[in-house]
Amino acid sequence: MGIVVLTMKASVIEMFLVLLVTGIHSNKDTTKKIKRPKFNVPQINCDVKAGKIINPEFVVKCPAGCQDPKYHVYGTDIYASYSSVCGAAIHSGVLDNSGGKIVVRKVAGQSGYKGSYSNGIQSLSLPRWRESFIVSEGKPQKDVTYPSALTYSSSKSPTAKTGEATKAYQKPSVPGTTAQPVTLMQVTGATASEASHTSLPKPSPSAVSTTSSLRSQPMGHRSWELDLWSTSSDASGQNSPRANAGFVPKEELSTQSLEPVSQGDPNCKIDLSFLIDGSSGIGKRRFRIQKQFLADVAQTLDIGPAGPLMGVVQYGDNPAAQFNLRTHMNSRDLKTAIEKITQRGGLSNAGRAISYVTKNFFSKANGNRGGAPNVAVVIVDGWPTDKVEEASRFARESGINIFFITIEGATENEKQYVTEPNFSNKAVCRTNGFYSLNVQSWFSLHKTVQPLVKRVCDTDRLACSKTCLNSADIGFVIDGSSSVGTGNFRTVLQFVANLSKEFEISDTDTRIGAVQYTYEQRLEFGFDDYNTKSDILNAIKRVGYWSGGTSTGAAINYALEQLFKKSKPNKRKLMILITDGRSYDDVRIPAMVAHHKGVITYAIGVAWAAQDELEVIATHPANDHSFFVDEFDHLYKFVPKVIQSICTEFNSQPRN
Q1: Ramachandran region, residue 462 (left: φ > 0; alpha: ψ -120 to 50; beta: rest)
Q2: Average confidence (pLDDT) over 364-376
Q3: Which of 125, 239, 405, 519 is least surrounded by CB atoms within 10 angstroms?
Q4: How crowded is the C-beta side of 7, counted as CA atoms within 13 Å?
């Protein structure tokens, strides 16, 4: 009996051990089978705005093709939540146009967002917005749990059908409050006026009392804050809150009212004409590359009435304006217009195009602003089929800064076919390399966008904006001696006025001053006294006849001290001396001092003036800078001769 009991006990123990071992193996197998579920990254479309997604931090996957201006982005580095998430990712450099995964984190709203051009996207400026976000590479942090499905501020996802007008969204619960269902607007075909009368139930008092608690919620829930509710009267006269903040912003109902129109970059205020090559030899593909280059330049420039304005002239056999300076006042409209340009065909007559631009394009009727430098950028495939030198000289003398972009220029074997050797240097404003860009291939033209924009916006170096008529300080030194007489003195003043009328007068252009002399000298008005043409002409009329002796040498010294000592460093200094007789004092040393100080002196003698003395006073060569008039009444005939001499001397300066 005892033996049997022992045997049973052994069997029980054996069974227990078998079960125990089996269980252990079973647990091991179960442990091996339990795996962490794979994280599914939510995918979004290019047009999804960060403000539509409630989650404070999330990972998403963007599709390819989001580098498109229709997906608006606001800000730089920190973006307003009204921005396209994927567009912001490309602008920041985290993604390219092929798409990919990104991490998005909501941050506080900013008082202002500055637009910029980066990675093919022009972001816009915005005064302020309630919520912001930043974008980083799609590598999730270990200590952060990211949602595998996004929560949108409307009940429907962006891909939901448009047949539903409204749905209820359950307000996140807060301890001590009762959750209130809130009806959201889902704007489909409703107009702004219809949507403004769509009302939302007002939060309950209990919800209002917890405002301080709600403000501490993650940024994705800021749409529940009390200060983002606004009230207005509905059709029945009852106050009802409008949709705002995290729902559908009022601004979304009219995109135009939200997006501020740029006034342009004030640091690049230029009037710009592009002369594009539309010749048959360029082909359709290269012509499209040329148009894309123009669009990229327009985007980078930030076109606007307070900044750069841009027009386009296409040339083939003959030139034709595609649109002028005043046609499009922002980069977006300009890019749309560029896309619509069709190729003209024909030869590549760039010289004819430059003449057309000089005579027709930069006019007030076409939007030329006068105070802004005129810039013409000529794009040529290979080389022009006509000559550009004479047309370009006329353009430079008219104050146009010519830039030349030569693409796939002539090889050594092809140079024999070039109509005008070294055509680029004969065309550009200066031959120092600043105005010329040589591009080896059409497919690398896009690399020229930034260098070109930087140069055309460097207004201090746009040397051809300075012409013979807008870049001088002109001091008239007028003989008021007794031999002149009252009547003739008025004739001299009329001559001075007629000369002054020919110049562009302002505090930044040509300035006028005047000295009258006999034995003594008198400053009638200085360079800083008047800065409009009408004021200058009135000041000349008011000059009174003095009468006395003739000390011309002393008058030159006086003008150097009282007038030209206050001349601006960047101005050409011109002295125009008018006398009717030989000086009582020596003029040689004062004249040498004037020449040494860089004052270009023109001597005009009337009646009894000494020719040898005029030649001493005048700048070398004397034949170009001294004039003799037999009678006072003939002075007016010499106005064009003096102006021509001034401009010839100015335009003879070296272009290097």
Answers
A1: beta
A2: 91
A3: 239
A4: 4
b/e string for 506-543 if b means 16 or more Cβ within 10 A?
eeebbbbbbbbbbeebbbbbbbeebeebeebbebbeeb
**pTM for the predicted model, two decimal places:** 0.52
DSSP output for 583-611: -SS--HHHHHHHHHTTEEEEEEEETT--H
Residue 74 identity: Y
Which residues on adjacent β-strands are paired with residue 525? 514
- E strand spans, 143-203: 166-170, 181-185
Those residues whose C-beta lies under 8 Å from the C-beta of residue 629, and which sit 6 or more positions away, are 604, 605, 606, 607, 635, 637, 638
Reduce the DSSP state of residue 573 to 3 states and report it: strand
Reading the block at residue 366, the tokens are: 């076409």
The alpha carbon of 485 is separated from its chain's Cα centroid by a whole number of angstroms, namely: 57
Q: Which residue has the tokens 């030869």?
A: 347
Residue that wins the pLDDT comparison between 427 and 371: 427
Number of Cβ within 10 Å of residue 264's Cβ equals: 20
Query: Does an H or E element contain 277, and which?
Result: strand 271-277
Q: Are 567 and 573 in contact (CB under 8 A)?
A: yes
Non-local CB neighbours of 300 within 8 Å, separated by 6+ positions: 117, 122, 449, 450, 453
3-state secondary structure (DSSP) of residue 437:
strand
pLDDT of residue 228: 29
Q: Which residues of 88-122 are buried (b: 16+ CB within 10 A; e: fewer)?
A: bbbbbebbeeebbbbbbbbeebbeebebbbeeebb
Four-residue CA torsion sign, 13, 18, 21, 26: negative
- pLDDT of res. 3: 43
Question: Which structure tokens are listed for 200?
Answer: 């939302």
Instruction: Please measure the distance between the N-terminal and C-terminal CA atoms of the chain and give it in whole angstroms.
Output: 126
